[in-house]
Model the fold of this input.
Amino acid sequence: MEINNKLLRENLKYPEYKLQIIYLTEEWQKQMNLGHYIIENTFLDITHPNDESIIAETTSNWQYLEANINWYMDKVITLRKNALERTVVHELSHVLISPMENQIKKGKEEYAELAVESIARALMVMKYGRI
Done:
């Protein structure tokens, strides 16, 4: 489902969120020892085609140490700063476990999501003392 791209780009938060995502990705990439990965952020002016609640989606070519995070900006601009940071950590946790995540059978993705969310929450608690 497409959204009104012009309205999204005119939202004053839009460029700020993009810069914040880039900054947080770089910072957490270091903290999570993912510096050997090339991680790109792609900012999309559409909602996720299958699930409008998805904020971001990560794909990884782990054998080449590459990953891409697609950000669905209509959802991103609704987030508070701490929720955005949690989402960045969650998506980078997908990169962290991507070699194992690719072995999970289709239809069992919730196991990977649980592992990723558990890692992300543990990291946030370590840094901030809370989720």
In short: The beta strands are 38-44, 56-61, 66-72. The chain has a mean pLDDT of 90. The domain at 5-128 is CATH 3.30.2010 (Zincin-like). The chain has one domain: 5-128.
